[in-house]
Amino acid sequence: MSWALISDSSCNLRDWQPTAPHTTFAFAPLKIRVGEREFIDDLTLDVHELNSAVQAESSASSSACPSVGEWAELFRLADKTICMPISEGVSGSYNAAATARDMVLAEDPNRQIHLVNSRAAGGKMDLIFLLFDRYLASNSDASFEDACAYFDSLEQNSKILFSLCNYANLAKAGRIPKAAGVIANKLNIRILGTASEAGKIELVGHTRGEKKMLNKIIDTMEAEGFTGGEVVIDHVENETGAQALASRIVERWPGSKTIIMPCNGLDSYYAEMHGLIIGYGMGVASGR
């Protein structure tokens, strides 16, 4: 029996290949509209070109989720499918996937499709798929129900943090006053956020400067119950900052493993230049 692990392009694994036998990973690309240009967030996207276009555009940009047809095509790739799109609380991607699931199961009731609300984006999603692949590789005879229960436990025991230091998109979209965005950028104010239980954006706090922000990330992870393990750090053209955070994590929790990867287009669009998205977990989701 074949497996498909499916997401949208808010997951930054991109061209990742699972290690579990007979298992495929694929994602449905979101689209980002910048001025008169549309960027499709697939493997051909030049993310730096997108970031530059967003910074240069004076008007508000927008994003669009994958269509029902795009999701349905991915749900036909394998006998057993687990799909985890970006948080239902911030995008219509989950609802489009749910419609596609119902459509494909009506066509072929023998297929098995499990749809999971990530309540996140980026690093948390990356971590869950990586850990679940390890589970499948070691439990090739697991039932669909047991595998789905394990996947759900990974989602429930993992967390996301995001650190922002540019606010142009928020200001252009009218989510914060333009003057406030300008002042925040000039004062080097950085915002730390997370996802609520419903998967919506929630503010943790702010600092001035990267060093204080790295300390706040470590303090927040510890307060949430992290005691070491695997951490995924996604970055928007900020590998130096990601490496600095990775060093802090290993220093605080020796033996921890950090995985650093660049953001896809969608996460770059939301986290903005030099932003970081961190995925980590406790218990079963710690990777230990």
Proportion in β-strands = 15-25%
CATH topology of the largest domain: Rossmann fold
Q: What share of residues is helical?
A: 25-40%
Instruction: Report the biggest beta sheet as strand number plus sense, adding barrel if it closes.
Output: 6 strands, mixed
* Radius of gyration over C-alpha positions, nearest whole angstrom: 19 Å
Give me the secondary-structure category: alpha/beta
Stretches where pLDDT falls below 50 for ≥5 residues?
A: none
Strand neighbour order, sheet with most strands? 10-9-8-13-11-12
CATH architecture grouping of the largest domain: 3-Layer(aba) Sandwich
Secondary-structure element pattern, one letter each? EEEEHEHEHEHHEHHEEHEHEHE
Ends distance = 28 Å
Shape: globular
Provide mean pLDDT, rounded: 93
Q: Would you state the CATH class of the largest domain? A: Alpha Beta
Count of helical stretches: 10
List the helices and strands and how they pair.
Layout: E1 3-8, E2 23-28, E3 31-34, E4 37-40, H1 47-56, E5 62-64, H2 68-75, E6 80-83, H3 93-107, E7 112-115, H4 123-138, H5 144-156, E8 158-164, H6 168-172, H7 178-186, E9 189-195, E10 201-208, H8 210-223, E11 230-235, H9 239-252, E12 257-262, H10 265-271, E13 276-281
Parallel strand pairs: 1-2, 1-6, 6-7, 11-12
Antiparallel strand pairs: 3-4, 3-5, 8-9, 8-13, 9-10, 11-13
Helix pairs in contact: 2-3, 4-5, 8-9
Pfam family, one: DegV
Keywords: Lipid-binding
Protein name: DegV domain-containing protein
